[in-house]
Amino acid sequence: MQTHEMTSTDALEILQTIYGFDGFRGQQQEIVDTIIRGEDALVLMPTGGGKSLCYQIPSLARPGTGIIVSPLIALMQDQVDALRALNLNAAFINSSMNAQDVARTEQALLDGQIDMLYVAPERLLMSGMLSLLDRCEIALFAIDEAHCVSQWGHDFRKEYMGLSLLSERYPTVPRIALTATADERTRKEIASNLQLTTAASFVSSFDRPNIRYAIGEPVNPRDAMLHFLDTHHEGEAGIVYCLSRKKVEQTAEWLNKQGRTALPYHAGLPAEERQHNQTRFLREDGLIVVATIAFGMGIDKPDVRFVVHLNLPKSVEAYYQETGRAGRDGQPSNAWMAYGLQDVINLRSMMAQSDADEQHKRLENHKLETMLGLAELTTCRRQSLLSYFGDTLVEPCGNCDNCLYPPHTWDATEAARKALSCVYRTGQRFGVTYVVDVLMGKVSERVTRFGHDRQSTFGIGKEYSANEWRNLFRQLIARGLLAVDVEGHGSVLLTESARPVLKGEQTLHLRELVVGEGKKSRSVTR
Ligand code: ADP
Ligand code: ZN
Predict the structure, then answer these.
(1) Which residues, given as ranges, of the chain have pLDDT below 50?
(2) Which residues are paired to 482 by β-bridges?
(3) What is the value of pTM for the model shown?
(4) What is the DSSP code string of 171-213?
(5) What pLDDT does residue 449 have?
(6) What angle do CA 401, 251, 300 make, to 5 degrees?
């Protein structure tokens, strides 16, 4: 494949003869041409957009080996297998290999027999590897999952920082950085940390029109999920994300009892079991993987029909990336999420307890707020999601829960005032459950001990159920009228924004509350 003067006709020929595709998609052609000319590129393309060809074709079209930096060893094997199936000389070097295999691959590299070499960043940056590369002809460096170089992004990996060395050490080798998620700020950080500020930048639309977004707060998320799966995804493949390993295992077990084939996946399982479950999911039809976020990066399964979240993701980027694993084949797919008050409390306390520095914690908190904002939204979800990535959608999409079934809002001012004053009267020292007990006039040992049964707000909220109150509190927290003091065991506090509502200076319209137990929440069941 090694000719020196390459044109885009050659690129098209490679696409057609080797890959068997008719033509390029979206911006692929321009990107490929840029790299073939020896220039750098920064590529932002949603999952499924076709990023791999953007570096694979130039690797073949240019003389020498394409070096692909990828963060996940588990995925290298899949990529390399896929390339070998096309009769290409692809290889990887990583820590799972024995010395003999490494030596053999290195020799093949020196002999110029490898079209594409996958390598993890920490491995690439080892002095032995670099001095080996000094003696090879290199077609390009591709830096996959480039958002890992950004501290603002959601998946920072410090090894990625070292990759800036490539531009100094190999100034004539073109570099291409690729990612599926990057807001404006992450984009800037990628460009500056990888010395790509002068690179051509290719930003594809982030819209995934075939994915229908729905987010709700059902009383019983598991049952609501099953109802959703039965209605829309009988026998189809999908991913169910949970926050904890324990919940992953429980949910998988439960789904199996309901007659679904569900496989667990999380970092605590033995490596063989994880690999086995992943392989089954890829090869067999209609399986469900129940997983923590450890599952998914780089999974290339085109017919994932649904992605369910049983917990709130910790950022909009994470939500977008995880839901983006649905419908890579362009067919209608669902992104369905159920969340609750406990998610907000759990995520906040995880953040408070992490040993990250203050600045980092503030940042994480800000991201969680933004995610909550998306969850509580009453207008088009897609418009909001895309605007987060600097993309605009002029009209509401017509393919999200809020567009299809506009949420009913109600004047919650009076109820909110009751809730807020009860928080105030009980001293801002208690969690939601306790405050709801007081509102509903429930006598308990604790309530009597603190004398709250003799308090003016005791029993003023009997018109709503405990679930309705919890829903209201969640919305008040999401809107920032109440703050959760995670160091104080989840006690809720009034914020400045609560004042105008308490004083009757501001009205508050909220999403309809869940009406009683059993009746499933509106937006997630359809
Ligand atoms: P990404 O890495 O951006 O998530 P991939 O590179 O894995 O996406 O491509 C997604 C799918 O689209 C793959 O199955 C790939 O073979 C296919 N694909 C990519 N480009 C084209 C094209 N020009 N024509 C047809 N199929 C394509
Ligand atoms: Zn919409």
Answers:
(1) 1-4, 515-526
(2) 494
(3) 0.68
(4) TTS-EEEEES---HHHHHHHHHHTT-TTSEEEE-----TTEEE
(5) 95
(6) 70
Please report which ligand is nearest the Cα atom of 211. Answer: 2
Protein residues with CB under 6 Å of any ligand 1 atom: 21, 24-25, 28, 45, 47-53, 300, 302, 328
The 10s digit of each residue's pLDDT in 297-328 is 667 788 999 999 999 998 898 999 899 999 98
Specify burial of residue 288 (Cβ count, 10 A radius: 0-12, 13-18, 19+). buried
Q: Which residues pair with 263 in a beta bridge?
A: 289
How far lies 170's CA from each of 52, 114, 132, 166, 268, in Å? Answer: 22, 19, 13, 6, 39
pLDDT tens column, 113-167:
999 999 999 999 999 999 999 999 999 999 999 999 988 766 788 899 999 999 9
Ligand 1 centroid – CA 318 distance (Å):
21
Nearest listed ligand to the Cα of residue 395: 2
Tell me what pLDDT residue 368 has. 86
Which of 498, 426, 427, 507 has the alpha carbon at shortest distance from 461?
Answer: 426
The closest of 239, 215, 520 to 381, measured between CA atoms, is: 215
Residue 131: Cβ within 10 Å count: 9
Half-sphere exposure of 425 (CA within 13 A, CB side): 23
Element (H, E) at 341: helix 341-353
What pLDDT score was predicted for residue 251?
A: 98
Dihedral over alpha carbons 183, 187, 189, 193 (to 10 degrees): 150
